[in-house]
């Protein structure tokens, strides 16, 4: 492991919203098997913002998918608020994902025929709950779109659509919010606005956020950056500047230590 290896302050934070314990994810078998994650152990304290970075193919998306219960590790466990996801059957895992985890992707994945408020209310409807209009409005206000509730995705900018996707992820008040390149499809100014929103949710509401990104400036909004190389944790940085993160990434991409 290179770089800072023991970050004492980090270990003394709030209790963990999520833990990965020796998580391995292998694809395929025999000679063509790929180990996308190799015994990864990580803790994510409540109310913190973590960015996951690493060269292409280092296992970032696989880590996020396993942590969010969208994929199952080959071995190891993922514990969300005391529940071991790897021990749940499909039905219980689906319920947990629906009620306790939020996800935003690079592509906003909004339903084009629904208005912003209908898109935001969807997770509650899928869970068989009747969404209160006030609750939907409140979360739309939270992302600065109180005045766009009746607009459809095609009537909104990319940044506005991503904010609707954020509101949709937040409507269930998830314990952990995951983002897979959430600003990847946005111009840099709009991307910054979404990152500021995420930062604000962590600071004001104690939201736990875990985000994969390639962009050092985006990662600098996080409290901590975890670096992956070849499916293993290669080090961490806490409170790092975009320049320091970029330097570290350049070194990792040139010659991982
Ligand atoms: N469904 C799959 N089947 C086989 N191999 C896979 C599958 N998904 C990922 N991999 C392999 O696992 C490794 C990690 O992939 P992953 O997508 O997690 O990396 P990444 O860091 O997110 O990459 P990128 O930055 O390019 O998106 C890669 O070698 C990839 O080819």
Mean pLDDT: 90
Main β-sheet: number of strands, strand sense, barrel status? 6 strands, mixed
Q: If classified by CATH, what would the architecture of one domain be? A: 3-Layer(aba) Sandwich
Beta fraction of the residues?
Answer: 25-35%
CATH superfamily of one domain: P-loop containing nucleotide triphosphate hydrolases
State the separation between the terminal residues, measured CA to CA. Answer: 7 Å
Extended strand count: 10
Return the CATH class of one domain: Alpha Beta
Helix content: 25-40%
The succession of helices and strands, N to C, reads: HEEEHEEHEHHHEHEHEEH
pLDDT below 50 for ≥5 consecutive residues: which ranges?
A: 1-6
Examine the coordinates and then state which fold CATH places here, giving the name of the CATH topology of one domain: Rossmann fold
- Specify the structural class: alpha/beta
Task: Give me the Rg, rounded.
Answer: 18 Å
The hetero molecules present are: adenosine-5'-triphosphate
The coarse silhouette is: globular
Main sheet strand line-up: 6-7-8-3-9-10
Protein name: ABC transporter ATP-binding protein
Organism: Streptomyces lacrimifluminis
GO molecular function: ATP binding; ATP hydrolysis activity; transmembrane transporter activity
Keywords: ATP-binding, Nucleotide-binding, Transport
């Amino acid at each position: 492991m290179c770089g800072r290896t023991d970050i004492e302050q980090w270990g003394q934070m709030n209790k963990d919203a999520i833990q990965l314990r020796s998580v391995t994810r292998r694809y395929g078998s025999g000679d063509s098997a790929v180990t996308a994650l190799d015994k990864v152990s990580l803790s994510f304290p409540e109310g913190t913002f973590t960015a996951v970075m690493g060269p292409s193919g280092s296992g970032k998306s696989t880590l996020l998918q396993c942590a969010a219960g969208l994929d199952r590790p080959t071995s190891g466990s993922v514990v969300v608020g005391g529940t071991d996801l790897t021990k749940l059957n499909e039905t219980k895992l689906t319920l947990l994902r629906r009620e306790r985890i939020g996800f935003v992707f690079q592509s906003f994945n909004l339903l084009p025929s629904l208005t912003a408020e209908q898109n935001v209310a969807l997770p509650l409807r899928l869970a068989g709950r009747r969404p209160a209009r006030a609750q939907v409005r409140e979360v739309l206000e939270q992302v600065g779109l109180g005045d766009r509730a009746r607009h459809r995705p095609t009537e909104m900018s990319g940044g506005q659509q991503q904010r609707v996707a954020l509101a949709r992820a937040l409507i269930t008040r998830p314990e952990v919010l995951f983002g897979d390149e959430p600003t990847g499809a946005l111009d840099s100014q709009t991307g910054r606005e979404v990152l500021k929103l995420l930062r604000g949710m962590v600071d004001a509401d104690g939201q736990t956020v875990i985000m994969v990104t390639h962009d050092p400036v985006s990662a600098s909004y996080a409290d901590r950056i975890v670096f992956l190389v070849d499916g293993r944790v290669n080090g961490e940085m806490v409170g790092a500047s975009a320049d320091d993160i970029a330097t570290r990434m350049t070194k990792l991409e040139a010659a991982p230590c």
